[in-house]
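pinging the channel bc i need a second pair of eyes. not urgent but kinda urgent?? the chain im working w is below, pasted from the shared doc
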Amino acid sequence: MNDLLEVLRQAITLLLERDSATWEITRLSLYVSGAALGLSTVAGLPLGALLALRSFRGRRLLVALIYTGMGLPPVAVGLCVYLLLSRSGPLGDLEWLFTPQAMILAQTIISLPVVAGLTMTSIQGADPALRVQLRALGASPLQVTMALLWEVRSGVLVALIAGFGAIISEVGAVMLVGGNIAGSTRVLTTAIVLETRKGQFDLALALTFVLLALTFAINMGTLLLQQRLTRR
């Protein structure tokens, strides 16, 4: 018990002293996951709207792939990205392996199905009469899509936070394609694993506190924004 309390005290001390290594790892984690979520949002919202509003050949297959991707193990994504970016892979010329770019690519693949799938479900749950009314008023397909996305904005926020949650806490994919290189590709989750294996429980616990704090802050911020948007 005393050992546990001592580890906890050392972890809190590291945070209060603003240990440079801890905050550099945190910064890279936010950069990688934030960039991946941004790419997933740009691609996932239109894709989810397309699947919800349009009927076309191959739609069922695409929806099945989206649902499969929502439950895809991150380590499987990491392996596929690793093979794509390896020297003998089709994207080897990019020389992205063991760089933040590879980590962003892997996390984008993980979060994209989550964002697209939940966006599609949210739009499908909207009142069908609204779509008919918008078309009757002469709204273009783009205007209809934007209006529906705004109507289901709470669901869209849930899609984004779910997508972010799926990548900020994953370790398998970023470990495989990033290599957990100090000062280059080491993020919160991979650093926690490494420091735990080394027996540096104080640093591992400090990083865990940071990860939990980030998750709580993002969820709380999203909840407050959701409540504000709902009142409008």
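so The chain has a mean pLDDT of 87. and The CA atoms of residues 25 and 182 lie 9 Å apart. — does that match what u expected or am i reading it wrong
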